[in-house]
């Protein structure tokens, strides 16, 4: 798309319900400053995540912000400029990344992003298809291999994925099916979501509405690993029953409810949190691991090992496009990912 001298971006000043036509607005902003470790990227396509809706809903419920908050995490785009300390990238490269929650987002013509959390985008798929993957791939990879520490190669075990048809669940199933020998069970309550989970790699699906009974009815007793991507408190009691002795539960879902973590004591089981933004938020020594993960995922896409999960394509860097996208995401019944092409 052509660009004016002032950068166009979509964001908000106050938290409003998605039913309000002004919950998101278009702003004309200066081009982002370039830090020494940054890339400045002309964004081509993004995806819309539940995290976008949560930030919009929670950031300014009582008083307007002093400056617009620009949303957007996933992005694919072309490098327009590189900072003085950047290595491994040059202008003209097509890159992908999931961004940094402490900085302005990708719902903009231009975005500045630290090069350590970016990688060259896959070349075998369109920018909009690729945009469906960065955040969920990073989350799924970190969940599987950093938090749950699932075994690769020929070591057996069982992984239960709660919320298998969503974005993170879809990539978790693909990565686990291709890179491990685990028995994969995913929760799905509708035929279309169950079919999708099997397409992503699940060996079996179970109904989350009575998770304990459904899992045991599948002929399985325990799961050594549980990846929890839906309602934490709703499934807590069942997970405590289903996790194997010395097993691990990983979750990305916060809850306002009290949960009894001592229920895991007898099994010496672990509860692990996964937040994809931790490395960038704290500038951890291994922050560049996210760039390396994205590099590996891009190769897996180009080699045909995993597929993109774009299932809903919208067009245009407009407030209405993103308001409608937020409305869809907030329903909570998405299969795959919603993508916006600029």
UniProtKB/TrEMBL annotation:
Residues 19-340 form the Enoyl reductase (ER) domain. Keywords: Metal-binding, NADP, Oxidoreductase, Zinc. GO terms for molecular function: oxidoreductase activity; zinc ion binding. Belongs to the zinc-containing alcohol dehydrogenase family. Quinone oxidoreductase subfamily. This is Zinc-type alcohol dehydrogenase-like protein. It comes from Oceanomicrobium pacificus.
